[in-house]
């Protein structure tokens, strides 16, 4: 019997917990790889509660339950999750573990799926519960899976080789680098569990997760340069087997946990930021010596080689033409009043697909009209969709996945008729000034992203305003659009990676913004590549090469607030937009581009 209501599902979970002798359970949005985006088979929280955001969790006790989300989802969680069934709790003011400690009785047994939680979470929760006489229990099989009758199967789509011409390095070369690291550190092996790390190391891609071209699998990399790939047999083609070669042993994904338990006496490195608690438990159970160390693929993956850098330039050029066509279309159609957020997102996807080489979106398009633009992480769906009002600001944050690169761009445009308010123009100009300041900055090699963040905020701060998200995140090469370890954000904030030193070859976003709650929002985002500064300097200095080329809306700019250097940046940038995008356009699209790229 299918459980059609969320009340029935919650009741079913409580009965299943009772059968297992458990008094509670914690449900995160996660998969076995701690992925940002998870497949439909792993959407347990959405099935149980109805919550469709990308970050959140729930805790269920016998007579109480709560949903935990941060400020991004304050409105959404109340629209999607029944307040009669769940309390709404704000993170980081509280957490599932703190809430359980306050609400569960002494002696309670609280279950959790160790293959969905990080080891840090498990250890902290265990300590907190111990003070209250509560026991944290790893479950044998997820209790939600036991009651989710129509749960989708994990994808069995084929994993495919990623050509060396795009990767820029062979998998053998990458594995040799990891083997050298293992030998230098005195480790026998390392567990690679993050899906984009597996994809990068083996030059392998897939279609198992929306927006990110990865294949559900694990790798155990050894100090002798060999590796074991754990993947569902149905996903392995003769082409993949040939591509991997003799040094990579292909094993069934189901053999992964037993393989970890068989590493008795081996010294195995595991990254606690990328590996679930279940991996640590399996290694410990088998008698391996577990060392917590960074995933050795993360830094070399972040530092793009020349082939990846050129691939990004090529992908961005094509993407720029598609987005430019879309912006012309929106400038004509939206003022008529007949375009809504979903229609606009679909049209943008259509322009990208017209090139014939788009593989996927790199994330769900943020198509945000009016007050929705004031929600930095807004996600349009059938329930939230609204028409784009004439005489308003429209914000669109989107990206594409191409074999040669991953794109991410935000443009904020004025939808006529009429003119934007003086406040809108002033705020947008301050955001632009911050964007330019960061883009033009030169800095010593190995400067942290956190040290640069204030540059993007200074003009907003001088106007008494700020924005609540980070300024820049790393971007992969036909991989994750949010890639570590580098980040540009306030030091000491909630975002990891602010202390990571920026190095030549890293790609980041540059995306300051401003958001007036209930009214409008502004964000300007280009991707940039870290390159040698090209200036006379004492020591090595770096700067940024802009990769994204799409016109910015001149109607939202007050030229009088710009310095001569900033006006020069604007004119130089739009001259490059014209050089790169114009050859791909014709007719009315080309005429529009020429007008938008005229000197300020």
Automatic annotation (TrEMBL):
Specify the domain of life of the species encoding this protein. Answer: Bacteria
Q: Which UniProt keywords apply?
A: Aminopeptidase, Hydrolase, Metal-binding, Protease
Q: Does the record bear Transferase in its keywords?
A: no
Which part of the chain is the Creatinase N-terminal domain?
9-141
Q: Where is the Peptidase M24 domain?
A: 312-530
Q: Which GO terms describe its molecular function?
A: aminopeptidase activity
Gene3D superfamilies membership: Creatinase/methionine aminopeptidase superfamily, Creatinase/prolidase N-terminal domain
Where the record annotates domain Peptidase M24 C-terminal, the positions are 541-600
Name the family. Answer: Belongs to the peptidase M24B family.
State the protein's name.
Aminopeptidase P family protein
């Amino acid at each position: 019997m299918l459980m059609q209501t969320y009340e029935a599902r919650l009741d079913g979970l409580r009965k299943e917990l009772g059968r297992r002798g458990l008094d509670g359970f914690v449900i995160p949005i996660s998969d076995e790889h701690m992925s940002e985006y998870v497949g439909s088979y792993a959407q347990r929280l959405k099935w149980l509660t109805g919550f469709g955001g990308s970050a959140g969790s729930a805790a269920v006790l016998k007579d109480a339950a709560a949903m935990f989300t941060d400020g991004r989802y304050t409105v959404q969680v109340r629209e999607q999750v029944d307040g009669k069934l769940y309390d709404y709790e704000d993170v980081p003011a509280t957490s599932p573990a703190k809430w359980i400690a306050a609400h569960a009785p002494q002696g309670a047994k609280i279950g959790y799926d160790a293959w969905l939680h990080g080891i840090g979470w498990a250890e902290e929760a265990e300590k907190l519960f111990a003070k209250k006489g509560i026991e944290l229990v790893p479950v044998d099989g997820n209790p939600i899976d036991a009651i989710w009758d129509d749960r989708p199967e994990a994808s069995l789509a084929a994993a495919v080789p990623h050509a060396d011409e795009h990767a820029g390095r062979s998998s053998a070369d990458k594995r040799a680098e990891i083997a050298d690291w293992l030998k230098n550190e005195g480790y026998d092996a390392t567990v690679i569990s993050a899906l984009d790390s597996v994809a990068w190391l083996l030059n392998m891609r897939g279609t198992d997760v929306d927006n990110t071209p990865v294949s559900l699998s694990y790798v155990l990399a050894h100090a002798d340069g060999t590796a074991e790939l754990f993947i569902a047999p149905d996903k392995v083609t003769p082409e993949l087997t040939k591509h991997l070669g003799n040094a990579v042993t292909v094993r069934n994904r189901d053999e992964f946990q037993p393989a970890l338990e068989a590493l008795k006496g081996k010294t195995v490195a595991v990254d606690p930021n990328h590996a679930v608690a279940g991996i640590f438990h399996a290694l410990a159970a088998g008698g391996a010596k577990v060392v917590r160390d960074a995933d050795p693929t993360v830094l070399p993956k972040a530092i793009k080689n020349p082939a990846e850098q050129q691939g990004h330039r090529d992908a961005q050029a094509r993407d720029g033409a598609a987005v430019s066509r879309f912006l012309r279309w929106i400038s004509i159609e939206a003022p008529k009043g007949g375009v809504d957020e979903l229609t606009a997102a679909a049209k943008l996807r259509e322009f990208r697909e017209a090139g014939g080489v788009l593989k996927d979106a790199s994330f769900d398009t943020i198509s945000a009209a009016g007050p929705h633009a004031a929600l930095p992480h807004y996600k349009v769906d059938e329930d939230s969709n609204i028409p784009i009002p004439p005489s308003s600001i429209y914000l669109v944050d989107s990206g594409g996945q191409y074999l040669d690169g991953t794109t991410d761009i935000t443009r904020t445009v004025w939808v006529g008729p009429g003119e934007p308010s003086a406040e809108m123009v002033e705020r947008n100009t301050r955001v632009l000034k911050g964007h330019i300041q960061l883009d033009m900055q030169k800095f010593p090699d190995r400067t942290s992203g956190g040290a640069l963040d204030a540059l993007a905020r200074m003009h907003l701060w001088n106007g008494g305003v700020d924005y609540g998200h980070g300024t820049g995140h790393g971007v992969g090469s036909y991989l994750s659009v949010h890639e570590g370890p580098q980040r540009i954000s306030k030091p000491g904030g909630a975002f990891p990676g602010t202390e990571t030193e920026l190095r030549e070859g890293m790609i980041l976003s540059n995306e300051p913004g401003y958001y007036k709650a209930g009214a409008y929002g502004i964000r300007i985002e280009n991707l940039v590549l870290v390159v040698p500064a090209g200036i006379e300097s004492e020591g090595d200095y770096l700067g940024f090469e802009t990769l994204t080329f799409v016109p910015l809306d001149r109607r939202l700019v007050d030229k009088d607030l710009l310095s001569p250097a900033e006006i020069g940046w604007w004119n130089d940038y739009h001259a490059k937009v014209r050089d790169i995008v114009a050859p791909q356009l014709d007719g009315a699209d080309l005429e529009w581009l020429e007008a938008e790229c005229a000197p300020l």
